[in-house]
Design brief:
The protein contains eleven helices and no strands. With 209 residues, it is an all-alpha fold. The chain has two domains: 3-61, Orthogonal Bundle (Arc Repressor Mutant, subunit A); 72-197, no CATH class. It is globular. It starts with a helix and ends in a 36-residue tail after the last helix.
């Protein structure tokens, strides 16, 4: 990517991030004009790189999540709660979610973003499963649904069980055999795998302000 283009995109993301985390403005209330003013760039520069503020938010989330995707895929799938917490606790992502937790629009965006990436992860992982004769896309859907359900349940009272226990509940609720890779053992996802090529990539139908 061109250095000037990358710099402009980073400036715009930093502006949006600062508006949400420093000025505590809800994402749903932020306008493109506010982002441009904060970044000190013209509106034409914004629309040269992003379709709307939702597109910018997703770009920023991808930046924040880079280190998380460096974790081995098997860890992210088999112990989703423990490793998610290891990554998010005290991170910029955690700061962002904490300051925007009252904004339903932001939470909807985060949920859709997370579910889409979880499904991509699960779909790739289950392509290597040898023991369950179930369509891989169905396994991926089931895995994500179970993860989300447990997450919602746990957040109502985080003190009731530890994240390690939550992972244990997760494996009791689902058939552990679906996580058996057979004789292949731990898998390594090639760096050139493009997750956007899976059927789980979805485009948003939201318009920024």
């Amino acid at each position: 990517m061109d250095l000037r283009k990358r710099r402009s995109m980073q400036m715009l993301w930093k502006a949006l991030f600062d508006l949400m985390t420093e000025q505590m403005i809800l994402f749903s209330k932020i306008t493109v004009d506010q982002i441009c003013e904060r970044a000190m760039v013209h509106r034409s520069t914004f629309y040269k790189h992003f379709d709307d503020k939702f597109n910018l938010l997703e770009y920023g989330l991808n930046q924040l999540m880079e280190r998380y995707w460096e974790l081995p895929l098997e860890k992210r799938i088999v112990k989703p709660f423990f490793w998610s917490n290891e990554f998010f606790e005290g991170s910029e992502s955690h700061k962002l979610v904490r300051t925007q937790q009252r904004d339903e629009l932001f939470l909807d965006c985060m949920t859709n973003y997370s579910m889409r990436l979880l499904k991509k992860d699960a779909f790739i992982f289950f392509q290597h499963s040898k023991t369950i004769d179930i369509p891989q896309d169905l396994l991926a859907e089931f895995h994500v649904s179970a993860t989300i359900a447990l997450s919602v349940w746990w957040r109502k009272d985080p003190e009731r069980v530890s994240l390690t226990q939550l992972d244990q509940y997760f494996h009791k609720l689902v058939n552990e055999k679906i996580y058996d890779l057979g004789e292949d053992g731990p898998m390594i996802v090639p760096k050139d795998v493009n997750l956007e090529d899976t059927q789980y990539h979805r485009s948003k139908n939201m318009d920024g302000k």
